[in-house]
Every structure is written in C-alpha cells, then in structure tokens.
Amino acid sequence: MAYSILIVDDSRTVRRMIDKTIGLAGVQVARVDQAANGQEALARLEESSFDLVLTDLNMPVMDGMELVRTMSERGWLSRTPVVVVSTEGSDERIQQLRRYGIRGFLRKPVTPEGIKTIVEGVLGG
After folding, report:
1. Dihedrals φ, ψ of 16, to 5°?
2. Single pTM value for the model
3. In DSSP terms, which residues pair with 59 in a beta bridge?
4. Half-sphere exposure of residue 125: CA atoms within 13 angstroms, side-chain side
5. How many separate domains does the chain show?
6. Mean of the pLDDT values across residues 56-73?
7. pLDDT at residue 14 is higher than 90
8. SS (H, E, C) 20-89
9. CA neighbor of 27 nearest in space, from 70, 78, 72, 83
10. pLDDT top residue among 4 and 79
11. For residue 43, which of 51, 52, 34 has the smallest C-alpha distance?
C-alpha cells in the first residue's frame, strides 16, 4: 500500500532529508507534502487526508506540541497518526506527547531503518 505523508519541520533541508530517507527506507509513498510549522500543517490537514504526520517539536508560529494538542482536541489524532521527529525528547516530554496520542518518536537524524520501523509499526506496512 502506498501512503500519503505530511512532513512538518521549519527547516526545508530537514524536510528534504526526511523525504529522501523515506525513499531510501523503501516505504511505498503515494504523496509527500510538507509544512514549515504547525499552523501550515493544520491547513494541509484541513485540505487533504494523510496516512501519517511526521512533525518536529521546535518550530516558529506553532510548534509541534501545539500541533499535536490541537489535533488531539479536534479528534484528528484518532484518524491521522503522528510521529514526532526531533532532537529534543526528554522522557517527560515524550510521555506528555503520548498522552495527547502520538504514535511514536524518532530522534534526529533519522535513518532509513528508523523510518521503516516506525512506518511499519504505526501503519502496519
């Protein structure tokens, strides 16, 4: 099955790197879209559905924590799994994100193996 994935990170370079890593992991992708912050991500989620959201935490305008909280409040996390991809990740912060409903956490820099494992674990691929 080919997946639609939304990558959310304020760094264009990181978004491109994650996109390339998804390809190297052999994940079947129908579409990859990108957003530079949580606010842009919410706009994309209102326009289209995605199978998976990969989001950073530290971003301007709307950070990843606020994105996850808003998605949780709107009931979107039950339909759209979220995996946080970040250099930051204390156990306390990860537990708080899990209470909101995230499905996984990957530390940057991501590897093809890490992406493949998380996608298979979250989406059953």
Report:
1. -65, -40
2. 0.94
3. none
4. 19
5. 1
6. 95
7. yes
8. HHHHHCCCCEEEEEEECCHHHHHHHHHHCCCCEEEECCCCCCCCHHHHHHHHHHCCHHHCCCEEEEECCC
9. 83
10. 4
11. 34
Query: Mean pLDDT, to the nearest integer, of 64-76?
Result: 93
Cβ atoms of residues 31 and 47 within 8 Å: no
Nearest to 53 by CA among 15, 26, 20: 15
Q: What is the pLDDT of residue 90?
A: 81
The pair of three-digit structure tokens given for residue 94, joined into one six-digit string = 């990860």
For residues 34 and 10, what is the distance between their CA atoms, to the nearest angstrom?
10
Report how far Cα 110 is from the mean position of its chain's Cα atoms. 12
Query: What is the H or E stretch that residue 112 is in?
Result: helix 112-123
The whole-number pLDDT of residue 125 equals 59
The DSSP annotation for 91-103 comes to HHHHHHHHHHT--
- Work out the pLDDT band at 2, boundaries 50, 70, 90: very high
Residue-number span of the structural domain to which 37 is assigned: 3-123
CATH number, domain of 84, equals: 3.40.50.2300
Q: What is the DSSP letter of 110?
A: P
For residue 13, what is the enclosing H or E element? helix 12-24
